[in-house]
Design a protein that fits this description.
The protein has a domain at about 1-55. The protein is mainly alpha-helical. The longest helix is centred in the N-terminal third of the chain and has 25 residues, at about 30-55. α2 (about 30-55) crosses α6, α3 (about 65-85) packs antiparallel against α4 (about 90-110) and α5 (about 115-135) runs antiparallel to α6 (about 145-165). It is built from six helices and no strands. The radius of gyration is 18 Å and the shape is flat. The chain has helices at about 5-25, 30-55, 65-85, 90-110, 115-135, 145-165.
Length: about 170
């Protein structure tokens, strides 16, 4: 999967979202429009996340295994939650907290930090913080839009610095 393919997927997903918005505005209560408006941004965000991970340096460090360990802890916590078993909350919150600590420690161990690195750290911390806060009912669910906005800032910064601001070869 190349960067250009992922950018094409992001563009197509955003186009699908625009079509969904247009259908929703022109045809009152058109059910497929709501699905397009939901699936489009999700596909674009997952493709953008894949783009950021593919071009990042986290995967090549030992911290990546630690992050994977905490992600697996989160998944086990989700399975516990589905089955209504005791300890699900502890597994979920400790997995999320461990992931935040692992990513933050990787960030501080990097020698050179760019604006994109700071945006990715901000995205991880807001995503985890908002997830825990919404899960524990400390804040309304609308606050969950903040990590999406930060992720879009990171994706746009990546596209700008790697594709738009690059000097044209002569």
């Amino acid at each position: 999967m190349t960067d250009r393919f992922l950018l094409l997927v992001i563009g197509a997903a955003l186009f699908i979202t625009a079509v969904g918005l247009a259908l929703g505005e022109t045809l009152l209560a058109y059910p497929a429009a709501y699905q397009l408006c939901s699936w489009g941004p999700q596909a674009a965000e997952w493709s953008g996340l894949a783009l950021l991970l593919r071009n990042g340096t986290l995967i090549t460090t030992p911290y990546f295994r630690l992050v994977l360990l905490f992600v697996s802890l989160i998944l086990v916590g989700v399975l516990f939650k589905i089955e209504h078993w005791a300890g699900a909350d502890l597994l979920l919150i400790s997995g999320l907290a461990g992931e935040a600590v692992a990513y933050t420690s990787w960030f501080y161990s990097k020698k050179a930090k760019k604006r994109l690195d700071i945006l990715k750290l901000l995205w991880v911390l807001t995503a985890i913080g908002c997830t825990v806060a919404v899960y524990l009912h400390w804040v309304p669910k609308d606050i969950a839009l903040v990590p999406h906005a930060v992720l879009w800032l990171a994706i746009l910064d990546f596209v700008y610095t790697n594709f738009l601001a690059r000097p044209v070869p002569s």
